[in-house]
Specification:
By secondary structure, the chain is an alpha/beta fold. It is built from 21 helices and 10 strands. The strands form 2 sheets. The protein has a 5-stranded parallel beta sheet with strand order 2-3-1-4-5, with helices on both faces. The chain is elongated.
Length: about 500
């Protein structure tokens, strides 16, 4: 693979000076056009040590308008990053739509280094490369333009460059360590490139012996990719293809997973108070134990309007020290959030190790309200199931304890609560015209919920369907489930 990048291509200074002004101008024009689109551009800058990756990044920041560029160098992980899932650091640095993000290193660095130095085995390396493939595929399917550069030097030329850097006092011990493993890095990197080279995010292997040739080459590739993609911007997905109902929904038109919930379950006030006190006391102790063990917790609540999500959340937070938790109330995305992949706003709130984040509504909006209300195209919400499963798997793999709740009530009970809210002064703010409109689409939501549970209730992140007609039952069930999950996950 790398032989094609060892041909000795060069560009004279005169040739460079003839090409550079026009290329510079064309890149700026393409960047200006990019700002009027909803395309985020991700440039990945990787390659062998000594290939001039830092010089490339500097050149790009010189050629392009820095007001539309975010440059991130990924190297050592911070304490803050180590306390969260590995991809948290990458999600935070994704560029918004119409902007360019330069990833100096990116998600490729650690898997390659860890494999070369024997920190992970073949199976784990394959798994990490598959995760990279899935991540990039998800971003490109959502509209991102991903341009990946691998800058290559032969072993002989790398040695020459590093010897020169040594004379200039730029040759660090870590570069010396890496250069001793040139063949191992080449073999490992070649495999990574082959396994992650896909139509939506292809690799460009760049010969880096001559920096003038190198820089003009990457400038042309970026320009051509921008122009091609911008010209296709008007192409919209066809109305095709993906049926809006799952096969199961077609076979069982009226029967859903919600019909298996024991909705008539009730409890007495005396028993409720007893159970509430028991599980709140237990949750308080377990939350501190999780803090001690550096295990973070995410509790995510979905449910019908007026199902009692807020009440269940308040019974949770009442017994957890305020220093340990935060509650995220998820509403319609802001302009900043709309400029990113829909999962971005949830990645940014992942708790540090030992803390608790409670989501009132969540990432499942993509396959619920966005599906039913037509805010997401069928292609988008159908692929979201796998994207969500991948997201939750990463959370759990990193040590996060994840609880997912759907609070279920009947349509008649919802109507009773709506009318009660309209008559109660301190509850009237809870009922809106949108709540009534959503109620009119009850059956559509019911089938969307059915598909959601079927596609995303996994071994590592199962759904808990909570009967909510009796609010007291729902609150105790939620507390008990959280306590049971923590107990099963912690070393107690």
């Amino acid at each position: 693979m790398f032989e094609a990048a060892e041909l000795g291509r060069k560009l004279s200074k005169q040739e460079f000076d003839q090409i550079e002004p026009d290329l510079h101008t064309a890149l700026l024009a393409a960047q200006r056009s990019l700002r009027e689109t909803d395309i985020p551009v991700i440039l990945i800058v990787s390659g062998v040590e000594g290939a001039g990756k830092g010089e490339v990044v500097n050149r790009l920041n010189k050629w392009l308008d820095t007001r539309g560029i975010m440059t991130t160098a990924f190297w050592d992980e911070s304490d803050e990053e180590r306390e969260r899932p590995a991809y948290w650091r990458f999600w935070r640095r994704l560029p918004p739509k119409g902007n360019i993000g330069i990833m100096f290193g990116s998600w490729y660095i650690l898997p390659i280094i860890d494999f070369v130095f024997g920190r992970i085995d073949d199976a784990e390396y394959e798994k990490r490369l598959q995760r990279i493939w899935n991540f990039e595929h998800m971003l490109s399917e959502d509209g991102a333009l991903i341009i990946k550069f691998w800058f290559h030097l032969s072993e002989k030329n790398q040695r020459k460059k590093l010897e020169k850097e040594n004379k200039d006092h730029k040759y660090t011990p870590i570069l010396k360590k890496f250069s001793k493993h040139y063949k191992d890095f080449a073999k490992t990197s070649e495999y990574a490139i082959r396994m992650t080279d896909q139509g939506g995010s292809p690799w460009h292997i760049i010969e880096a012996d001559d920096k003038l040739y190198r820089d003009i080459t990457i400038g042309k590739i970026i320009h051509d990719a921008l122009v091609t993609r911008i010209q296709k911007q008007s192409d919209k997905p066809s109305d095709l293809t993906v049926n809006e109902e799952s096969i199961i929904s077609k076979i069982c038109k009226d029967l859903t997973v919600l019909d298996g919930v024991d909705i008539n379950k009730k409890t007495t006030e005396k028993n409720y108070e007893k159970q509430l006190k028991k599980y709140q006391k237990k949750l308080n102790a377990l939350s501190w134990e999780a803090r001690k063990q550096n295990r973070s917790t995410i509790a995510m609540f979905e449910g019908w309007d007026a199902a009692g999500k807020g009440g269940a959340i308040r019974r949770m937070t009442a017994c957890i020290d305020a220093r340990l938790y935060k509650t995220i109330s998820v509403a319609a995305p802001t302009d900043e959030e709309k400029a990113q992949h829909y999962l971005w706003r949830f990645w940014r709130h992942i708790p540090r190790a030992g803390y608790v984040t409670i989501y009132d509504r969540s990432w499942y909006g993509r396959v619920l309200v966005e599906r039913v209300e037509g805010f997401a195209h069928p292609i988008e919400w159908n692929r979201a199931y796998q994207e969500i499963n991948e997201f939750e798997e990463q959370l759990v793999e990193s040590g996060i304890i994840l609880c997912k709740f759907w609070i279920h009530i009947t349509k008649d009970e919802q109507l009773r609560r709506f009318k009660e809210r309209e008559k109660t002064p301190w509850k009237v703010h809870k009922i809106t015209d949108e709540d009534w409109r959503n109620r009119d689409k009850w059956d559509n939501y019911k089938h969307a919920i059915n598909d959601m549970v079927i596609h995303t209730s996994t071994e590592y992140a199962p759904w808990s369907l909570i009967p909510g007609n009796d609010k007291r039952v729902a609150r105790v069930e939620v507390l008990k489930t959280v306590c049971d999950t923590l107990e099963a996950s912690l070393d107690t």
